[in-house]
Design goal:
Layout lengths: L1 H6 L1 H4 L37 E14 L6 E15 L2 E15 L6 E8 L2 E10 L4 E11 L12 E12 L2 E12 L10 E12 L2 E10 L9 E11 L4 E10 L7 E10 L1
Antiparallel strand pairs: 1-2, 1-13, 2-3, 3-4, 3-5, 5-6, 6-7, 7-8, 8-9, 9-10, 10-11, 11-12, 12-13
């Protein structure tokens, strides 16, 4: 359909008609501007199909968090995303195996295993122009993990993200606030966070890097700072592979973390 409308570009110049994304819906009536060229749209200019994707991954992290003991964590990651028009729903959870590596004996002590917390994100995308997208997210953590693997309390917060993509280059900035629930015995600080990221796309490959900064859970701890580097490959038939390395810059986060994931869009 969009190919048909693109062929009418010259003819359309003869009339007072603006259709920036060539979907056949005039800009003044287009509720979803800048839809992709391959999308089939409804009378409001929106892609009427429900899109879904799923991912499976593995991550390994280690850090001493300012102590003499190294804490190791292995996790299997599971994620799912649903998208309708400009709204997305994302669910992420994990199965964790962790332990403390005692320096004197090199034994792995205090091992624990179980289901991690469930993270839920609802996002709405606002297309400011063909290069710029503003995303508003509502984030929540449901305490599905047992008390030894999680805090046992729910969190809720919001994120505002501004992303710009031009030719092969992209970048984003974000700010977020999380109200961290308190347990009967522990009071946590609410978290204010910010981040910045850049990326470059070359064919089916994408390379990116980002920096994340957040206030600590407790006043006695340093801020949370992390740098992440990622390599992504978008294969045919909707499959993608991601490999990333994260480096903790303070004792409030793991010193290093490696993640490999495979995703597929249906």
């Amino acid at each position: 359909m969009k190919l048909f409308w693109s062929l009418l570009l010259v003819a359309g110049a003869l009339f007072a008609y603006d259709d920036s994304d060539w979907d056949g819906v005039e800009d003044s009536m287009d509720n979803c501007p800048y839809t992709p060229m391959e999308a089939f749209v409804d009378a409001q200019g929106c892609d009427n199909q429900l899109h879904s994707s799923a991912s499976l991954g593995y991550t390994y992290s280690s850090g001493d968090f300012g102590t003499t003991t190294t804490y190791l964590t292995h996790a299997m990651l599971l994620g799912a995303t649903l998208q309708f028009h400009t709204t997305t729903l994302t669910l992420n959870t994990s199965y964790l195996y962790s332990g403390a590596l005692i320096p004197q004996t090199a034994d792995l002590n205090d091992t624990q295993a179980g289901l991690g917390d469930l993270y839920v994100t609802v996002g709405e995308n606002f297309f400011l122009n063909s290069d710029t997208t503003l995303t508003l997210q509502l984030n929540g953590k449901l305490p599905t993990a047992n008390a030894t693997l999680g805090s046992g309390i729910a969190d809720i917060g919001g994120t505002l993200l501004l992303a710009v993509a031009h030719d092969a280059f992209s970048g984003y900035v974000l700010g977020s606030y999380t109200h961290v629930g308190d347990s009967s015995s522990v009071n946590y600080n609410d978290i204010f966070a910010s981040g910045i990221g850049v990326g470059y796309n070359y064919g089916a490959w994408y390379v990116g890097a980002n920096y994340y900064l957040a206030t600590p859970y407790f006043d006695t701890e340093p801020s949370i700072q992390r740098a992440t580097f990622g390599l992504y490959y978008y294969a045919s038939q909707g499959t993608n592979v991601a490999l990333s390395y994260a480096m903790g810059l303070t004792d409030a986060t793991a010193k290093e973390s490696y993640t490999l994931s495979i995703g597929h869009a249906f």
